[in-house]
Specification:
The complex is a heterodimer. By secondary structure, chain A is mainly alpha-helical. Chain A contains 15 helices and four strands. Chain A is elongated. Helices cover 40% and strands 26% of the residues of chain B. Chain B is globular. Chain B starts with a strand and ends with a helix. The chains are: A mainly alpha, B alpha/beta.
Chain lengths: 401, 250
């Protein structure tokens, strides 16, 4: 291989690449702005939407309860609920979002309370509709408070302390460091995203430098120059590989920035109110990047080989779209709960990298697995590059008509 | 010098089986002369020239181009060849200068020689006004000039032109034919394929008629006129090809 010739091809391909809007969008803009938009933007939007929903005083309807005046009066006094008069079409009103929920008070409810009979109070709501759930929750909270008061009164009547009902309390407590907690939450997502973006970053340059050249008629031009096919593939491959890596690097930077913004603005609060700080240390970032290297190599070689069979940009896109699914399936599998890295899974490309990235982000380094995954992916990548070179030497592929 | 020795190229087609695109073709092109390969569409001209330029590998036979074997040393052959056809397009996102520089570097020119060669070619072809313009913004004529500059940058001793005027307007085609004559006058070996009779009459020192992948005859225009008893090249071509057509029909 003549490295000087490879460098000349690479330089030229790089010049053309930075002047191509399509590839720049997929390689630079998408990874750079997708994460902030998806994570910060959507999180901020979700916070705003939830906040707005929580601020709303839900309209509710009471079904029955005329024989329980105290309960009704208590509910009507609440600032957190707006009780509207009963209507027969209350179910439709909930479905049409005119009211948020309805509560059904059983007949002789207050009498039953006095005789200590157990009754069931039903809350009707629109499952899956956020504002309706908030309305139902507020009714439930009111009823629980009401029930607690009844229990307290009953205990007091029998001269018993409130603690008689709760001889002990149960509390779960996390002992894992916050980085591991957040790593377990976001680790698989980060690995998955880096893999997908490595592929999308490589896809458009791979098409442009193969099928695109054929379509534009420049393939014959370059083949008539003295450069060997091996050097030509080398230069083209390096550009596709660079694009893939650039996308991966930008996506990691962009993700880091997005998490930092989220942590600072406290948009990413867990239900317990504790911020999930994602502490992506330098070692994790470098490790994820190193594991993505052979995978980007593999993607670049495979995508180039497949795209070379196509006669046009459009045809290449139709060949590579199913490839996207082949890559997404193992990447998604790694995100599934309970899928852990095993020696067998360590040999499955894409899935292995995604799983090991998940472990790395949680701060777990199983060096044997890491070495096995790195070496096996390098072997697959080498085989794919060999295939790409061989394909470039096939006249039937280069001049397919 | 080009010395084709029994060049053959067979392709496999799923529907039609084996296709003999070029069948045992032999000829010689001398320096300072233009060899015109005349044939109808699909006769085997492009495949022959692609084999000479080592873009395709012969199935049988071989050729020596500037003393290098097309099978043994394809890279050396390409370093001695300038190949131009209507299919050899330009990189749209490179400027005319970047394009020519790229091919100069691929041909192993050092930066000083490359700069000197570029200035010389751009002056000669009157390309300075658009040397920094991207190729996708050039007119057809400008693109042809850039293509010529690309083939000339390494000053190859052999020039291969595959239907270079196909689809071009008169003025642009004229630029090409003038350039081909200049190549001959500079002592280069020139092979030129076409199906346009007038171009052959105007340009070629030796004419080879190719049909169905076979080289049927060759000679100077005067020799062909004498051999076939016709003055008009089109009539000569028809006479050469017709017996074969009749055989095919029979």
């Amino acid at each position: 291989m003549n490295l000087s010739a490879v460098g000349i091809v690479y330089r030229k391909e790089f010049t053309e690449w930075v002047r191509d809007r399509r590839t720049l969008i997929s390689t630079v803009l998408v990874p750079l702005f997708l994460f902030p938009l998806m994570m910060v933007g959507f999180s901020a939007l979700a916070v705003v939407m939830v906040g707005k929903a929580q601020k709303e005083t839900p309209k509710i309807m009471i079904l029955g309860g005329q024989d329980s005046p105290q309960l009704l009066a208590s509910m009507r006094q609440l600032d957190t609920l707006e009780v509207i008069p009963y209507a027969d079409n209350w179910k439709d009103q909930i479905s049409n979002k005119d009211i948020r929920a309805a509560v059904e008070i059983p007949k002789d409810f207050e009498k039953s309370l006095a005789t200590s009979d157990s009754e069931t109070v039903k809350i009707y709501f629109y499952d899956g509709e956020m504002k309706s759930s908030f309305g139902a929750n507020r009714i439930e909270k009111f009823l629980k408070d009401y029930r607690d008061t009844v229990v307290k009164d009953r205990l007091a009547a029998k001269n018993l302390p409130a603690s008689v009902l709760s001889p002990f309390t149960i509390k779960q407590e996390n002992v894992a460091p916050p980085e591991k907690v957040s790593g377990a939450t976001f680790g698989s997502f980060i690995g998955y995203t880096v893999i997908i973006l490595c592929m999308t970053g490589a896809m458009y340059p791979a098409i442009d430098l193969t099928a695109g050249e054929k379509e534009r008629g420049t393939m014959e031009t370059i083949l008539s120059s003295p450069i060997s096919r091996l050097d030509l593939v080398g230069g083209k491959f390096l550009l596709v590989f660079s694009a893939s890596l650039a996308t991966a690097v930008l996506s990691v930077i962009s993700m880091g920035g997005s998490f930092a913004i989220l942590a600072r603005t406290s948009l990413m609060n867990s239900s317990g109110g504790q911020t999930l700080a994602l502490n992506l240390g330098l070692l994790s970032v470098v490790s994820v990047f190193l594991m993505a290297l052979p995978l980007a190599f593999l993607f670049s070689a495979v995508l180039m080989t497949i795209a070379l069979f196509a006669k046009s940009y459009k045809e290449a896109q139709s060949y590579l779209t199913p490839m996207t699914f082949l890559i997404i399936i193992p990447a998604v599998a790694s995100v599934m709960p309970g899928v852990e890295l095993t020696p067998k899974l360590a040999l499955i490309p894409i899935l292995n990298t995604s799983l090991v990235c998940k472990e790395i982000i949680t701060g777990t380094y199983h060096w044997n697995s890491i070495a096995l995954i790195f070496v096996s992916t390098c072997v697959y990548a080498g085989a794919a590059l060999f295939l790409a070179v061989k394909t470039f030497q096939r006249e039937s592929v280069l001049f397919r008509s | 010098m080009i010395d084709a020795r029994g060049l053959s190229k067979r392709f496999q087609d799923k529907k039609r089986g084996e296709i003999r695109a070029v069948d045992n073709v032999s000829f010689r092109c001398e320096p300072g002369r233009i060899y015109g390969l005349l044939g109808a569409n699909g006769a085997g001209k492009t495949t022959t020239l692609r084999m000479l330029a080592t873009i395709l590998e012969p199935t049988d036979g071989t050729a020596l181009v500037s003393g290098h074997d097309v099978i043994e040393h394809p890279e050396k052959v390409r370093a001695n060849v300038g190949f131009l056809s209507t299919a050899t397009a330009l990189y749209p996102r490179l400027t005319a200068q970047e394009l020519v520089e790229y091919f100069g570097r691929l041909n192993g020119l050092d930066e000083a020689t490359l700069k000197k060669r570029l200035d010389d070619i751009f002056n000669r072809l009157d390309m300075n006004s658009f040397r920094d313009r991207r190729c996708d913004k050039l007119s057809t004529g400008m693109k042809q000039k850039a293509s010529i500059a690309r083939t000339l940058v390494h000053d190859p001793p052999v020039m291969i032109f595959d239907e270079p005027t196909l689809g071009l307007d008169i003025m642009t085609a004229r630029t090409i034919t003038t350039f081909i004559r200049e190549c001959r006058d500079r002592g280069k070996t020139v092979i030129f394929s076409t199906h346009i009779m007038s171009e052959v009459e105007k340009l070629c020192d030796v004419i080879g008629v190719i049909h169905d992948g076979k080289l049927l005859t060759e000679g100077t225009l005067a020799q062909l006129r004498e051999k076939y008893g016709e003055q008009d090249l089109e009539e000569i071509f028809v006479k050469i090809v017709t017996p074969l057509e009749s055989q095919v029909e029979a």
